[in-house]
Structure of tRNA (Guanine(37)-N1)-methyltransferase Trm5b:
Amino acid sequence: MEVPCVRVRRAEGERTRRELAEADLIADGYEITVEDGWLYIPVIDSEAVPEEFALVEREAPDRETQTTPADLLGFDPSYERLGDIVILDEDDPERAARIARAVVESDLPVETVLNKASKVKGETRVRDWEVLEGESTETVHREYGFEYALDLAAVYFSPRLATERHRVTEQVGGDEHVFDMFAGVGPFVVPAAARGAEAVGVDINDRAVEYLRENAGRNDVAERVTAVVGDVRDIVADAEYDGWSDRIVMNLPHSAEEFLDTAVSLANEECVLHYYDIAHDEDPFGPGERAIREVAEGAGYAVDVETRHVVRSYAPHELNVCLDVRLTRSA
């Protein structure tokens, strides 16, 4: 069967395989093959493969299968992977326990199985968890070549946003000043710094900032990262960051509008704003765009919406969206 494959010289094969694996792009059902000095790595989503890699369609042999949770259960359970943790969202305790047992008895490299016990709550956006298997809620997540240590019981982190984070950070230039207003453990800050930018990450959750500092060190970008604990509105009141930013990330989709005055005060003479919102699907971009224009134009900036991007479906008739907006100081 022909499948999309990344074609890479054998000498670069392990680095490429590792990067694709960290982005969860390798099609595990097929074997990696070698021919005439080239390595062919089957991938599950050709559109998500970074542009630096060459894609081809070719025959790939089926891989000898490993035991999956579905093999043990007789049905395909729904779960997320985060490092060596599997996350469930099951209302039935007996079903949750059965799935968790199958997960740890399968060939998945998993230490802990958690079930969601509450919605995301509070200003730190953490949730309660039921530990079904294992002990620790701490793990190391790998994404597009970067490592993030985190504790799900103490910080907010969504593996589903990996592609979106990559989309944004691939736009970062090496001489930029990047400011993440709600930085968490650093999944925007660290890749931005790795591209040569000077990056500041602020978060009201002190544990998240501890992990951000650790992750900057893990990924060898500590010298270009400043991590600050506090409400970003209070931090930015310090004139040190007034007009400092060439790029601002506002990934707080339920309430980013409340922080637009602060974001605009951070903006340089020209600045790109990545504004996240949850909006009704009848007009997903209008509310955010109108809010940005009101604040930015009132502060003397011209507003150019460069990208209107749907990140994912959030709830029935609601979308998680991002507006990439260029602010330019009016003459």
